[in-house]
Write a structure and sequence with these properties.
The structure holds 2 protein chains of 2 kinds. Chain A is α/β, with parallel strands linked by helices. Chain A contains 13 helices and 23 strands. In chain B, strand 16 and strand 17 form a beta hairpin. Classes of the chains: A alpha/beta, B alpha+beta. At the A-B interface, strand 5, strand 11, strand 12, helix 6 and helix 7 of A face strand 1, helix 1, strand 9, helix 4 and helix 6 of B.
Amino acid sequence: MTKEYHTICQIAGPLVFVEKTEPVAYGELVSIALPDGSTKRGQVLDTSEELVVVQVFEGTGGIDNASGVKFLGETLKMPVSKDMLGRILSGSGDPLDKGPPIIPEKRLEIIGAAINPYARDNPREFIQTGISSIDGMNTLVRGQKLPIFSGSGLPHNDIALQIARQAKVLGEKEDFAVVFGAMGITSEEAQYFMKDFERTGALKRAVVFLNLADDPAIERLLTPKLALTTAEYLAFDLGMHVLVILTDLTNYCEALRQIGAAREEVPARRGYPGYMYTDLANMYERAGRIKNKRGSITQFPILSMPGDDITHPIPDLTGYITEGQIVASRELHRKGIFPPVAVERSLSRLMGQGIGEGHTREDHRAVSDQLYAAYAEGRDLRGLVAIVGKEALSERDRKFLDFADSFEGRFVRQDMNEDRTIDQTLDLAWELLSTLPIDSLTKIDRKLIEKYHPSTKK
Amino acid sequence: MVEQGKGKIVRVAGPVVTAEGISPRMYDVVLVGDLSLMGEVIKLVGDRSIIQVYEDTSGIRPGEPVSNTGEPLQVELGPGLLSSIYDGVQRPLPVLMEKQGDFVSRGVTAPGLDREKKWKFKPTVKQGDELQGGMVIGEVPEGNLVHKVMLPPKVRGKVKSISAGEFTVEEAIGELDSGHKLRMMQKWPVRTARPYAEKLLPDIPLVTGQRVLDTLFPLAKGGTAAIPGGFGTGKTVTSQQLSKWSDAHIVIYVGCGERGNEMTEVLTSFPELEDPRTGKPLMGRTTLIANTSNMPVAAREASVYTGITVAEYYRDMGYDVSLMADSTSRWAEAMREISSRLEEMPGEEGYPAYLASRLSEFYERCGRVKTLAGPTGSISVIGAVSPSGGDFSEPVTQNTLRIVKVFWALDSKLRERRHFPAINWLTSYSLYSPILEEWYRKNVAEDWGALRLWAMETLQQESELQEIVQLVGADALPEEQRLTLDVARMIREFFLQQSAYHPVDTYSPLKRQYEYMNAIRKYSELAKKAVSLEVSLEKVQTLKCRVDLGKLKFEEEMDKGLKAIAGQMETEFSGLGV
């Protein structure tokens, strides 16, 4: 019933141009039959009566002018089912684990509609990751999207895995389901993730999408959409709490730029397309909570900043959409500190809603502010010491200097398997703060100091 | 809506659709495809119209119908705007949710104003009165205030009949001799500024209760301010604080390309908030416009205009309106995205060449005016800009700075050390402070200007001294200069830092701001005297009053505390022999 066209007039990069077709819908799914008998899939990017532009997911290698093009009459949908948990799928959703095909309970559009802002529920349930620098100072809540800004050679994967292993909501037994979307990572990295999932048994509660470095770049544009569609199904249809880990967004954006260049679009910054912001927003905004629904989607995108440059368009635009960021620090990593979280550059925008009395502890906000201020002061003093020497510092300044060291060495540093409770984290913070003069703790209310400061605590 | 022309689609490329055969005017609203998606004509080429569609166009194909409504993009103005939550093209989000569930799907329309609800109308004109455009014809209680029903600006004539009673917004409440039916609802095209009689000088401050803003960098009612800041500098919290606490009658909050979760925070926190002056819910004087970053880009472009038109409508009633546009950078980005889809020749950094004129047109729609009806009203606009990469030389920031008079420079360095609001006192400015000084002198304190100057000077001296300290350390400075550093530190930590989350500290009335700064100045003067009498600085710094001064701002009885501290300072300093 669907017509096959043999009217390809141009092939350029990942794009195929087809002329003289019946009216074709924007976003329609396309299948292309190659002369060697194989088929490839694509999607319509631009449609008019004269010319249709098709973006081919698996790359255009092997397509010739005589290849047959079929328009399938529907936009891209993916089959979803509860049985996807525990499965490993390719970047375009086909099983890789030799398991049975997935019998769909539903077929969903992969371009998710925007959640009506009025239907959203406020994310305010504290997620305890067991990592002090995150729980204490950049607290994560259920429904948040918090990317890890990293660089080449930094252990961002270990941070992500530790979070996936330890994340829990206090007072709830149920573990998070994990949806893992890999875009253009090496098979070595992929194996590292898979091994850890298997070791900890997390794989049973995980759905894995793998687009590896040698898979077609265009497929990468699909992978996170499939992952998030699955996550939405698990969260809002089945009521599960889902943790989505996407890595590496930089590869995704490269693929986006590749498509833009092939379409000869007017580029914006550094050659990335002008709509990259909207494109990323459509992905990141698929996190959150919905009123009167049980489930939630919490996102952990990982991206490597080219040249550690936080002003590069990818981290820059990401930062405008996500609710903060965890920045990995090369300096701390060189000092041998794991997890190398640069707290002074990290931020969780939803922290305020998830901490304090009834969530974590009443002193959380004040302690965190005080840690930030004292650490910043100590870091400034390091610059001064380099010039005038430690001896020239006042007694007070020396204490701040020492504080910065013990903060990094004891608060930030912890073992890859060390799972600290929030009370442990805050008590440790008080212990470190008690090395400072008590009247320099200006960010903390008197009453809290009386209650929690080791020198006055009963 | 009258259908003027029917045509068909010839091309679809993302949100940009080309159609033939509808012969529209520029900026007419058209309905696209079988789903009747709303769009706007943004370019005409021969018989072809280029349409920017406000919704996702997946599944739309060439050959589907297009119809022209013959009208430009308009908003509905009338009772019911307050407490409403709209998307960028004035569709009420709660109604959309009721109609189609938790996700915004396509092709659903909903009127901006509730058609069923009856409002209690009381006329203020009578039969035989001669009316000019924009004149008030009656009153309706709405939310926390009186909604003044006005004649549309272009209508005039003699009242033939008018009646009190309960009406819906569409029902006729009376008639003019010309036969023109009087209704509570009027429509206005969003891209056209509403007329007023005369523009006035902005010489009254918009009181925000935020110490760093009111004291150091005040904004006038009818003024324009920009808050720039890379991500994570506390821009959103600052702008929400302003919406909550500023003394405008009406607050319009446009979340343009905002994060969904943060918009939710606004949507859930506003209805819970109490208006500090009336004790009623804050939503009763607020309209929220929410177009999150993943909602259609064309509606994001329109959202800012929708907001300012609603603001103008309330200004015309004689109210002070403050409009938060968060963020104008996302708005500019929407322009850029649409412009690039149109394959227009890009200007700087890919932004369209008309970026500067669009921005200035928008900011020029605010101001303090004498309305057509007679009284004065104002619109103050606070536009957030988020410069990419924190680079202030980028076009949106630069073009904005050429227009606005106040610049509240959010600073990520301050954020790192948890100095909130992270407004840099050295790079921020307000061109209104000379114009506003007289008001402050009359209404707060005679020496307000002098005190402000003293604070600014101290902070300036600090930054100069800091350069020396960086090289030789603080101990190398003479006592007097070290005292200056200490006083500046007090200004920064006690006065400028203000916690949005602390129940007392979150709002500081002008009088209290003055007293607080005055107390710090008093300490500074006494300490200076002490130092000149060769009392060691360490002794001065460890006085209890210095510590107490810092904790005062969190005390519930702060005003009492401020009164007491002056005496305490004198006693303690006299103990040092001053």
